[in-house]
């Protein structure tokens, strides 16, 4: 394993973990861990009063996050495995992380299939480029950060609209208003939760997206504003799909090649510890988060999706993750949307 991220990551991913519940796991004392915890607090500008109750509570979460990362790194390890370690979420308990980041998706349970996998041979036989990365075509906007606003459903939907405006009209990729969708999308609940397909349906049946400059992101739910159309670029969705493609991921790859980026829903329960590599394990198919797939890569031994998250560019691989194609990893094929826009 390449252990170049930090000494701390190297140390905790290469030693033997005997028990997840051991208070002195890996033979490291609290005193030895505190300097690394202090470095974490400094790097991510976390401010807890020294040695207060909150300080020690967050230290306990930090320590347990390292235990979990060590376990995930050792389980199913291979040269292409995802790597887990210290991230900006390491001071959150699993319950806090879930409450803040993973309770905002309200998709109904759809498209249940017994068979989860798509034969890799079927995918490799597709008549598509071996690698597609829509970032290289200039149609992907900057990575966004939803912070504590539970609106992944709005972020991922708007991101794909932005991409398709650039792809279908040839203009520079616009920075469209996620806040407008948070505040105004019917049948959704702003930062309290929502559904990607209902958001896209709202955009198709008459809503028009304005720019982020005209309706800026506030990271909280507010009263819907009705803006004058005069002088405003107004974007409307002309068509969208909401597909269940479990066991048909060859179709997802074909869509990525032929149509463009996709909005999908996933299980992100273990993503708070993700640093890099290809996610191949440690995911269920229960969807609790929404993201955008911006491409794929079939050239390596493990084919992968290039997944854009909405947790800021300081998460994962500059805001992105890699997820294995073919096994419905993290439920990534359960709820897949394409988008077309009115030019």
UniProtKB/TrEMBL annotation:
Single GO term (MF): cysteine-type peptidase activity
InterPro entries in alphabetical order: Papain-like_cys_pep_sf, Pept_cys_AS, Pept_his_AS, Peptidase_C1A, Peptidase_C1A_C, Peptidase_C1A_papain-like, Prot_inhib_I29
Against SUPFAM superfamilies, the record matches this protein to: Cysteine proteinases
Q: Which residues form the signal peptide?
A: 1-18
Entry keyword Protease: yes
Domain (Cathepsin propeptide inhibitor) spans 37-97
Q: What Gene3D superfamilies does this protein map onto? A: Cysteine proteinases
- What is the recorded name of this protein? Cathepsin O
Domain Peptidase C1A papain C-terminal span(s) in chain numbering: 128-340
The similarity annotation says: Belongs to the peptidase C1 family.
One Gene Ontology term of the biological-process aspect is:
proteolysis
Q: Which keywords describe this protein according to UniProt?
A: Disulfide bond, Hydrolase, Protease, Signal, Thiol protease, Zymogen
Q: Which PANTHER family match?
A: CYSTEINE PROTEASE FAMILY C1-RELATED
